[in-house]
Protein 1
Amino acid sequence: MPDDDRPACVEDVHELALAMPHVTVWPGSEHKPVYQVGGKSFVFFRNPRPDAFDPETGERYADVIVFWVPSEADKEALVQDETSPFFTTPHFRGHLSVLVRACRLGEISHGELAEVVQEAWLSRASARRAATWLAEHPPPAG
């Protein structure tokens, strides 16, 4: 895809999530969308919460997006680099998800965001749906 290298944006989250099969969208609280597959959330826009806040001002982040991940190792890979826009909070300890602020999405490429959304979907889809999608979208060789 020619735009894989461009910076990601919030609109990409919506487009990529909706591009996955069998997706339903719930308005969520405060009309923040929740993307689901088979009744299971895989991406959602979170309301401001006390565990995700600006350390200088104490203001709660209003632009947090949650992505499910396949495993604790995948979560660690995304959050261990302090320069990465992905993070977690104590509230999400033991939860197979990572957080990112919408205002920092441009720090990753559209292609990287696509992988995160696809992995989120795969981690929540039924085994049959996941196998079908993977058969239709084999990983690039190399």
Protein 2
Amino acid sequence: MKVCIYGAGAIGGWIGSGLARAGCSVSVVARGATLDALQLHGLRLHQGGRVSSQAVASSALPADLGVQDLVVLAVKAPSLPEVVRQIAPLIGPQTTVLTAMNGVPWWFLQGFGGALADTRLTSIDPEGALAEGIPAQHIVGCVVHASCSLDEPGQVHHHFGNKLILGEPSGEKTARVRQLAALLEKAGFEAPVSDQIQKDIWFKLWGNMTVNPISALTGATTDRIMDDDLVRGFISSVMLEAKEIGARIGIPIDQRPEDRHAVTLKLGAFKTSMLQDVEAGKAVELDALVSAVRELGMLTKVPTPFTDALLGLARLHARVHGLY
């Protein structure tokens, strides 16, 4: 099976390494220091105290790699406009595009959302370029529950978690999504198939749409964020807004904010991905994590004053630092 990893960061590298071990013909779209490292050392994974390496094809130009059976899209949301301008050579009539990304994806309301079904979220895909560049029939959604980081370009460090939740946007358990789950399980991942991938996306977002931007604003790890009563109360207020929005589009959450806080506290002194991006001078994923929630609030007529405050402050901070 021909598999291309588009986005050779921590998560993309982790998935690619597993698929290479499972016997797939893996290629990677990369550039700069990452491309140099892949060509020199292969795709390296630091896991369980040892470093392994898998030989992969790599290029900065998708056209060099050709049509794939599977493309794993594991980029940060701000990179998507550039990706869709270049991804076409990888996609043939039968190619599956697995979107292993944080936040609300551009296809979130594709065939889902009741009265809002097929609405384009302008906060994520303002001109419709993403939907046009990666046609809906190719997409399988993926929610990643794992913690990985980069030790250096081309070398991923896997910390904990091993779950990749898969799902068709339609909720159907098609042959292709079942076959993909079987392949990922062969590669060593836990890969359940969801009845409604939007629910899994929303439930993960319910926790990280607040802690991520607050960590970016303050520089604090999750333990310090959760230890502050006022900040934790503000987070709960944002979460209650998102919970009401979810209920109105058919994805109710049966937890209280306090239940999720308890889970976050167990992570200890954890540095969020958005804080890592700020420290590295990279663009932040505010639109996929927060702007989309605000837009869904407007569409469902749910007032979002706390979400608005969070977005405004985090967006201003990011603009001042050239990250948005």
Protein 3
Amino acid sequence: MIIRAIALDDEILALKIIENYAEKIDNLSLEKIFNKQSDAQKYLNKFPVDLIFLDIEMPAKNGLDFYTNISQNTKVIFTTAFSEYAVDAFSVNAVDYLLKPFSFERFRAAVEKIKINIDATDAKYLSIRADYKLHKINFQDIQLIEGLDDYIQIHLKDSTKITARSSMKSILEKLSEKDFMRVHRSFIVPVNDIKTIVNKNIHVSDFIIPIGETYKDVVMRIVNG
């Protein structure tokens, strides 16, 4: 599997190092490099990627804030000269934290973690803790996932619901990317269960779900193949 990636850093030299390292890894495709956050955001709005190499201290917006505002399910490896952000980086589920200057071997080890992470999405079950126990839910049994502030509610096809403390971003990372799609800041749906799309609404199972403005381009591209 090819890992599609971009890199964002306000230092051109740092981007060139990542570009050089990426060329040496067979299954890593560094699609673009950016030194402006606005340009990177425009690209991400049109072309979803699997991974972003992301600096933290930048002129416009902190890299942590930039990542948490990405609507799609993109993994992140932070690349920074500042060690004090490590705890914050892993709190947003960063795959790795590369402290500049980092070696090619360290870079390759970080990318290997991504491969393991992506391979894990081939699983057929969602494991989540709720009601003081661990639930193992078959992907095929999920009708809809709804975001409720700091919680998510999983609607199952047998009409039961499981409510767990989780963010939408975190739960999306545990789902198969080819089987599930975020269509709104508050909704994730199974791709194969989509019946129709009418007037910016998705009809899935017995639900009518609005398509969020941020997600409409990605939704239409996936649905139209």
Protein 4
Amino acid sequence: MALSARLEIRQGQGLVITPQLQQAIKLLQLSNLELEAFVDAELERNPLLQRDERDAEPDAEAPVEAAGDVSTDRMDDAGARAELDTAHDEASPGERVTGDAEHDMGAADAGASVDWSKASRGGGSFDGDPEGLEGVLTRDKTLNEHLHDQLSASGLKGAEAAAASVLIDAVDEGGYLRAELAELADRLGCGEDLLERVLAVLQGFEPVGVCARDLQECLTIQLKDRNRFDPAMASLLENLPLLARRDMAALKRACAVDDEDIKEMVAELRALTPRPGAAFGGEPVQAVVPDVYVREGLGGLWHVELNSETLPRLLVDQRYHARVSASARTDQEKTFVSDCAAQASWLVKSLDQRAKTILKVSSEIVRQQDAFLAYGVEHLRPLNLKTVADAIGMHESTVSRVTSNKYLATPRGVLEMKFFFTSAIQATEGGEAHSAESVRHKIRQLIDAEASERDVHSDDAIVDILKEAGVDIARRTVAKYREAMRIPSSVERRRRLKETA
């Protein structure tokens, strides 16, 4: 068969992921803190972008109410959709609509739309805030700094001081030494006996119990400091697994003490600190800032609106763009200006579309979980990404990105969007399925109601109670949920209640 070259034309369809589309997809899954950092980087890189420092004027009218009547157990889907559509059609561009947004990702802009990129955001300026600068510059001393301060006054010199500094750097936030002495000795080129001597000095530092290698050593140091370390207490520390299981009979035999002595010894252990370094400052904790506010309105309706504090306010400086374009001489300069303008415009549009998409998904979540908002976790319905995606006409992966690292401020607290998506557990007689979260809540309620050892429910007993309540669940599922909530077994709970009786 002879080989020959020929030219053909074929027509086909394909999806090309452009850099701009990749950026839009990336913006969807960023949290508000990550988005702020991304925008700061873009402001440094792109000279045509600038923050809109104008004060945002609040809307005179209230947000449109469109989440359905929550007075009934389940919303009428057709009626709710009609309400949402009516609210969306009648709302002016200045109103915050809780219905469908106009476009999905990548759709062309059509008609008037809310410029979410120009909404107000929290300022980080110190102007007018005399305590702002002080709050930034002052912070709690960390455990590492506290130990190094004591090292300076310890009198250790030369190799011992250097070894002590390395050991301190290996101490975690809880106060435990997380390094093997043999490893450190090999790395530092010194003897292990030197590290043992230095470690003994460090274990005398404040807080008492710091630089221990495990829990037993930490508690031993604290007991010795209180002059309460004796052979019986040493035996108790060697049998901490028995104490964790509350096997008091085995502990009494191991320590050779009676009931009264073992109770006193356990009480002394409970007065100690298992994490001596926890009292010191660590990395600053970032408070969760909700992306969406959900508030109850009149007539059982719900207001759903974006938190404008988390939305960057960006503008494309058209005047500066015109000046720079006019002064550009070389092709390289013209290309740079053109690219900056295109990227700036795309970023503003992407932020606008991101806000619309978040609002659209949040509104559907509120519509689906209105009973939970009104009555509590027992009324949380089973929900998955596909249900929301089909309802709002988006792809499931888009909904997944939107719900990542996003939070809703509701009357039930600030909740992550993922919280509202739970698996379904079937009802016993073919009724409406129960959400896994509501079943976990029922299990916790049953266990919290146990007042004495006679009231303790085994996993099988919990299964029977739930089946009577219409929940078709297996014993292993109850055990899995109980362990996930860190609730001990019925044997352990019965033993604890017996001790406190």
